[in-house]
Amino acid sequence: MTIAGAGPEERRLRNLSQGLNVRFVGVLDRVELARLYHSADALVLASEYEGLPSVAIEALACGCPVVALSDTGLEGTVRGRGTTANSVETLPNAMAEAVRIRRSGVAIQPPNEFTWSAVGPQILDVYSQVTAIEEVGDS
């Protein structure tokens, strides 16, 4: 298991993982993170309070299935692209299912509403609106 990133729970996680095959790699740049997503069996989000974390979309965009807890708002995002667990206790079963999905060769992609072709025009629209406001302010 590889844990990327850093945060307030890192020390506790390191203590809990002593004697287990867990590797902490710290904060990664986007290229290193993409490599990790490509090589990982799954991204596991065991948080109950994430909403729609960008890490889930990033993993899916790299073809990495996502495992999340149920009732966190990620069910629709991971459906067909990973799996959910009803509780922390059932995470191992969900992780095994994600590995099966990954190894099946099925194409993993983010939902259409999160692809660049969907998001890009929305971002450009915001830029256009901001530019229009600046032009009015400069008059």
Break the fold down into its secondary structure elements and pairings:
Blueprint: E1 2-4, H1 10-16, E2 23-26, H2 30-39, E3 43-45, H3 54-61, E4 66-69, H4 75-78, E5 82-85, H5 91-104, H6 116-138
At a glance:
By secondary structure, this protein is of the alpha/beta class.
Could you characterize the architecture of this molecule?
It is built from six helices and five strands, in the order βαβαβαβαβαα. The protein starts with a strand and ends with a helix. The chain has helices at residues 10-16, 30-39, 54-61, 75-78, 91-104, 116-138, and strands spanning 2-4, 23-26, 43-45, 66-69, 82-85. It is globular and about 65 Å long. The chain has two domains: 2-111, Rossmann fold (3-Layer(aba) Sandwich), CATH 3.40.50.2000; 112-139. It is an alpha/beta fold. The strands form two sheets. The protein has a three-stranded parallel beta sheet with strand order 3-4-5. A two-stranded parallel ribbon has the order 1-2.
Brief descriptors of the model:
single chain; 139 residues; alpha/beta; Rossmann fold; 2 domains; two-stranded parallel ribbon; 5 strands; 47% helix; 13% strand; globular
